Inverse folding.
């Protein structure tokens, strides 16, 4: 079960005030080079280009998820709830701390273009020849595997999984509060202390006692507001699109044999789909930005233009459409092409729905994938929360997204005379 | 004097809530690539290794300094104070926004090792062939020079200089509040609104009306607390030392002809003392970190060890001494050398006094260098604030620093048997 | 239109930081004895018995409503919106400041029992022989009447009415923020600065520019949370019921000729329905509490018991019912009576619906009573907000209330053996 | 040792977020009528006339002191410090909760005029025939006496006394934070969590571990700022003076046989110096304000004028003098008298020094009265904090007070022509 530190270690944290470390294993994990690397991966990817304060890293967030998990468990222990398996404390804390270890630079874009998954990388780092693996093995030989299986949701105690990964887990609670703090918006604040007090371990799940329903409503409302005002912000989407295009273009020309003036090994391996854990360790946002700075000087005009746009924040503009209209989009694309714009790089249609977020999906009790939030009513009845809460039921089915068409404004302006007046008007040009 | 934007632009900011841009020149300056580069320079250098939340950039800070300056001027204008020269508004706002433009990656260390000054670089960027220069010249041909002379403190209207650079200027007010916010400490908060309300332009200076004395006390107390708890934190000092040693070592071996596996052009130019503005533009913290990652694999053991320490946060430990004792230090140094440690890299004595900070120095009225904070008493008398405030007088003369000796703990442990028992005990070893 | 103060007056305020007074009329109104009386009327009535921090007065709130109104108008003036009638500034500010002047002690209960309305009293105080009237008349002879007609919603400029009284007026914005601050809950916080920035005067109304929709959603969500967690809190309802019963009982026995040991004149006049403005001025919460303290010693057992309950916080307990069931309630009432409890005082059924609050009601554009919140879309189209916002549409129709039955627990326990087992069980007794 | 509640009770608190009650004794004490009476006594007396937000009661503060004490003890227990006597928990919590029970309305003024002491009244309420006494006796027969002796500082375990009453006790920590919150100033905030973490029970005292020195500095700086900006605010002093004069005048004329139209029993008993605990229970601020409202209509002009001034906030104005000058004051007094002003009521000289506050006084180790704050250095050395901290040493000896002369401005104006020009000028009159 690991050793307790002689003297508790304390980190000052803007969101939780302090983060307390009592276990030697946790302390040693924080000090591995793989965990320290998370300082070089931003928590919110390109969001800092929209909200300049959002420059915080996955390092801070990971400590926060650990701290919330520690608080939940400590409250379970203090209350002597019989349904909490005490021996699962350390594995839960480690999984909470390490769950984001496999994130690469600007993860969402990389994952889309190169079809990787950060959970897989997390597990590889836990299980292969790394400092993290060595620390975990001091607990027991199968400990790295146990931590990995919590993160991959195959662990045999579902209550541990649901601490770290569910619709109201420590991960989401930390990122809502933290992202709200660093962006400076005040939509994301909810009463964490109160949420923690209404959680109960019950029959292998973490549930909410009935009187806590309004606290959960408050939390889901925060989530709703954060998604629409921060996570789906169209300017952030624009920078994500530029980034995705950079990766797509670089891979495309690499495959065609383009001779890069500068191409660091991790990038080459990524293009070839044969990254090792060692390469992956090098792959942080410092490297990505350095590479983009140099690609800005490459011969390939599209790549060079995209990199300048990203580094100097000259993003694509957008227009908004309420409805899906593929015929219209085909017309626009064809007109762009005729006018000399690149149909794959100078026009991108985006719909926020296909994103790894959702406000809340009820799901079924017992569902593996996304277990719903359950209220414990009358001592022993479990009720899915949207059955009790009108407001949660209201927001559950909402599809609020609109379509956005992103494009390079000044390039389009130059060619405006080659575009049909009707389409031109759509893009706000006379 | 520049155009007003048709629609005010607004940035969400965690410290000031919102930052408002009304002038087209300001908006265009923010969008230059040189100003966007400040997103890749951290405001507090290596402090994030001590306070993990302190990951904010000079970009955010620069916007904040601009906003405070805007608020001060706007209050001067609303109150129709006759001593405020209205035609100086735009030059003041530009100087506020751009005053940190010349900061390099981890500035303080670079400046010490390479004897550069960020103010000089700021002025070069303002005056040479850059996007910033082009935007400034749209106002008038001599406008870049005017902005530069405010920043270099040679402008002929001292009131403008004192807005941007004095003992209670917009720069310090923003960084105290911002650094407190991002580190999460609450020492640095003072009542900005109240400070702004008690400032008065008066005979070419910015002074404080008498009833504002307690507000200034509160501000100086914040400064005092921040210096001792954040800016002079010994762990931050340790990381600064590592960084300085990296630069020192790299330059040293470069001069001796060491063949680097990787050495990007801006670094080479810096070693040779012939950086151009173009090179300087490349020199951001992404590049520095990428270079350090690669130097961690260099043959030179000292450089490689230092880079690993910095990147993986394996800092030097320290012991504290109340008194200066050069004889003792010489003994320690000699013993370290005998034991096989490197006397220039494995031991460093640090005293926080030689830092660009001080809590408050009264100085003389009329002094050019650091004009004191003046109270406006009985309508027309200027009194240096520490004459009136006992508490400010109390903290003015304080020398609180202690000496710290930094060293690589595990290397010293290995060699402990070669060290005199007395010295060993000093370092906490049996 | 009134004089400007030579030096702006400033009040420190926990919610808005500072409250600024520039007009002499406003300053003089604040210093009238009728406005100072509001310090002795709590903003949230009996809520301090549930949330102990909620001890703030209508004085603080009135200053807050004034300040928000001042900010809105000042933004309208700065932006030179043509649809804002500048000459209406002072009347708007006065109406904002004075709108709650007629509130009595624990208003809601008094209004219910004695069928008075605080708006009527506000207008009487504005128009009869009072210090407030004298100050208003210094502006012009018809000024008291103009201010009164804004408050009574008969003023001929609807835009002024909607500043002070609409579904998103300065009154509601202040009380949500203030009540959240003093109770200590964090549901009620929304981004006031942002709301203020999206308001526009438009064709005699105050509307919201389209991009402000999410800010309004956030505000309405806060309102929703505050209603269910603070304003409708069943413990607060319990204390309101006790209070209402005190007033009801006192009047009842007074009418029957009961000889009170102590009955101050304003109370006697209130029982007789012939209160003068002078009596009303005496009627504050200090007097009400003093009277209750003495009534606690009266011969009438019911009155004495109720007063002790209120003063020593021995409130009625409650049980909750989802559905309306008048047959069951009649049975309970009859059983209570049989057991010797008083059917009118020892049982009270409460449903939060019949309260002067609602989260949001769309209403029709142009409706006099409760004009809806309108979005200004595409420069010139007004759309009722719930047509655009799914989330607002969702909460608009919600009926979340449950029925609560309040009763004196220890009295019921004593008589439990006289009650049917089924009913007994309903009240949680064996 | 009292019983533990089956389910923890929780109060929402704006300062501490939540207040937790686990002991049945504490719960029952809170529900006594004597403790509920504290809701009708303001924490900051007349300060709400200067800072309108400061309307909070001693009820809230008492819960806060309890909560801080609970947190300190709970940290001592978690850390298993051997020097903490565990059996003292309940007596400490009760003393913390009840320490202010004996405060009357506007205590400081009443205590000065009638020479009573709230600690004495606290002990009488604990020990005589009251609900509080009955609850305490359920623990043990001598328990009321034990709690009382902690409050009177005669308890035989000094560590318990120092929790509740010392220079850094739970009382002061709560009031600084709470008064800062409700007034809205931000001087009074310090890092409570951090202070709590550095406290240690050590040899019958509570001391501070050495590394906590800066946290204590921060706390003392807050105290310094609060005293000068809130507690000693000259406008608050003005209202205290009016209040003192009301009490003084009423007693004076009562003694001379004046026939009051209204004089409630507790006031009569107070004038005669024979208050019982039952009378004292009636004596709250609701009663005081009701009585003042009626005295405003009394025949005695001085009493009537003072009461109107207090109720309608028409306070005395003041002039400030740096130096003590009794000759000058005698002249002024004599001139006032000649001009027909009352020398005892229309002129009052005030010096903030004679107040129950001080920023910090070192005192001697072992001093009974005001034990100093001690640092625990090198495991086992106790050092008085101002020996180590320059900043604390600096503020320790400061005498910042100025003399203020309070007087009724409009009365003086009327008589200005009867006053010497020199004196007139002193009072700002031509």
């Amino acid at each position: 079960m690991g050793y307790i530190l002689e003297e508790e270690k304390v980190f000052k944290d803007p969101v939780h005030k302090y983060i307390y470390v009592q276990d030697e294993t946790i302390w040693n994990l924080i000090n591995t080079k793989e965990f320290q690397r998370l300082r070089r991966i931003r928590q919110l990817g390109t969001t800092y280009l929209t909200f300049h304060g959002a420059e915080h890293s996955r390092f801070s967030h990971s400590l926060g998820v650990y701290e919330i998990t520690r608080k939940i468990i400590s409250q379970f222990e203090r209350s002597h709830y019989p349904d909490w398996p005490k021996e699962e404390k350390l594995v839960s804390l480690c999984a909470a701390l390490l769950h984001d270890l496999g994130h690469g630079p600007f993860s969402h874009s990389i994952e889309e273009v190169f079809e990787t998954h950060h959970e897989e990388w997390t597990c590889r780092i836990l299980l292969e020849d790394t400092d993290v693996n060595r620390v975990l093995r001091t607990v027991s030989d199968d400990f790295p595997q146990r931590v990995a299986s919590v993160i991959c949701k195959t662990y045999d105690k579902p209550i541990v999984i649901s601490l770290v990964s569910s619709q109201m887990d420590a991960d989401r609670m930390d990122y809502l509060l933290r992202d709200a703090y660093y962006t400076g918006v005040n939509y994301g604040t909810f009463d964490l202390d109160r949420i923690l007090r209404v959680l109960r371990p019950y029959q292998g799940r973490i549930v909410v006692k009935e009187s806590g329903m309004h606290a959960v409503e408050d939390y889901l409302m925060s989530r709703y507001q954060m998604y629409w005002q921060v996570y789906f912000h169209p300017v952030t989407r624009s920078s994500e699109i530029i980034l995705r295009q950079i990766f797509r273009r670089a891979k495309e020309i690499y495959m065609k044999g383009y001779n890069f003036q500068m191409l660091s090994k991790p990038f080459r391996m990524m293009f070839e789909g044969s990254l090792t854990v060692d390469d992956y360790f090098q792959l942080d946002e410092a490297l990505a930005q350095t590479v983009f700075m140099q690609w800005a000087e490459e011969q390939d005009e599209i790549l060079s233009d995209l990199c300048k746009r990203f580094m100097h924040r000259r993003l694509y503009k957008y227009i908004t459409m309420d409805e899906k209209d593929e015929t219209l989009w085909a017309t626009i694309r064809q007109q762009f092409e005729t006018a000399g714009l690149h149909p794959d790089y100078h026009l991108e249609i985006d719909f926020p729905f296909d994103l790894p977020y959702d406000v809340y999906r009820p799901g079924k009790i017992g569902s593996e994938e996304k277990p719903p939030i359950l209220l414990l009513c009358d001592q022993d009845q479990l009720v899915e929360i949207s059955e009790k809460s009108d407001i949660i039921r209201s927001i559950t089915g909402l599809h609020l997204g609109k379509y956005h068409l992103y494009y390079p404004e000044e390039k389009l302006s130059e060619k405006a005379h080659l575009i049909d007046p009707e389409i031109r008007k759509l893009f706000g040009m006379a």
In short: Chain D has 22 helices and nine strands. The first helix of chain D runs from residue 24 to 30. Chain D has three domains: 4-232, 234-315, 317-356+402-430. Residues 234-315 of chain D form a domain with the Growth Hormone; Chain: A; fold (CATH 1.20.1250.30).
